[in-house]
Amino acid sequence: MTTWQPDVLGEGYEQHRIDLGDDPDGQGPIDATLVRRVPRDGEQVRGAVLYVHGFSDYFFQRELADFFAERGYAFYALDLRKCGRSLKAGHTAHYVSDLALYDAELDRALQVVRAEAGGADVLAVAHSTGGLVLSLWLDRVNRRPGGTAAAGIRGLILNSPWFDLQGAPYLRSIGTEVVKLVGRLKPTTPIKLPPGGAYGESLSITHQGEWEFDVAWKPIEGFPVTFGWMRAIRIGHAALHRGLDIGVPALVLRSTRTHFATAYGPEVDAADAVLDVRQIARWSGCLGDHTEIVPIDGARHDVFLSRSEPRAAAYATIDRWLDTNLPAQAPAPAAD
C-alpha cells in the first residue's frame, strides 16, 4: 500500500518516498519523491501524467498540474534521487554516473501511478534534462516484452528537452572527450563555467519574475555541474543521436530563439537562455516515428514558466495534440 504524506506545496498535494537503498554512486542511502495533486471533488480521472523535472530543478508548477487535471489526467511528479525533495546532506546535488540508474525510480513511480489511477494509461511529461532522461528510459521500456504499450504509456510531451551540448563546436568534440576522461577519474569535481544566473533571475519573484520556488532546491545560479554527471549526459546524448524508438507519439515544445546571457536583461524573458533551440529542433526527430515539434514564440527555457501569452499558446498546442493523438483520454477543457 502506498503511504502519502503532506507535501511542501501545501493543501491539495501529497508526497510518497520511494526507497532506493544505497546509492550505487557511493553517496549513502537515497530515495526519490513522488508528488501527487490530490483530485478535487467531481474531477474525473481518464488517465495520468508522470512529470520529471530538469537540472537544478524540482516540481513546484501547480498551474501545470491544474491544467492536466482539468482535462481528466491525475497528476504526479517525480523528484529524482538527489534532486529537490530527495536531496539529502552528503549528496552531490543531481549527481548520477549513468542516466540508466534513474530507471529504478521511474519504474517504481510508474507502478504507483498506474495503481493509483486504476490502471489508466500514462502520459509522460518532462522538462530539459528530464526530457533526455525520459526519452532514454522510454526507449529501454519499449525494448521490454510488450514495449511501452504493455507498460501503459501512451504519449510523451517534452518541454525544451536537452538533446545536445550547447556552445562552441569544440565542446562537442575534444571537450566531450576531456569530460569523459576526467569524469571517470574525478566524477564529482565541478566544471568551471561562466556565471549563469540570468535565467534564474528571470523566473524568481524576488527578482524580475512571477514564480515562487525554494532556492535551496532550485538555486538562482544553478547547482555546480560535475564532470561525472556531464559524462553521463554526453553518453546519453550520443545514444539519442544514434536514434531511439520510444514507441509512442511525442510532442516537443521549444522557444523560437535562444539568447545566452551572463546577466539578466529583458531579452531573457522571451527566449531560451539555457539551451540552443536549433539543437532541440535538429535532434527531436531521433525519438521515433511520430514526433511533432512546435516552436512557441516568446517562450522561456521552461515553456510553462514563460509569460502569460506564450504559456497560453503552449497549453493550446497541448490541447490540440491531445485531441489528435490521445482522443479517448482528452476530455474537453473546463469552461473559464
From TrEMBL:
- According to its UniProt entry, this protein's organism is Mumia flava
Record-annotated membrane-spanning stretches: none
Protein name as annotated: Alpha-beta hydrolase superfamily lysophospholipase
Keywords, A to Z, come to: Hydrolase
InterPro entries in the cross-refs: AB_hydrolase_fold, Hydrolase_4
Q: Which GO terms describe its molecular function?
A: hydrolase activity
Q: Which domain of life is it from?
A: Bacteria
Pfam families given in the database record: Hydrolase_4 (PF12146)
Residues in Serine aminopeptidase S33 domain copies: 44-255
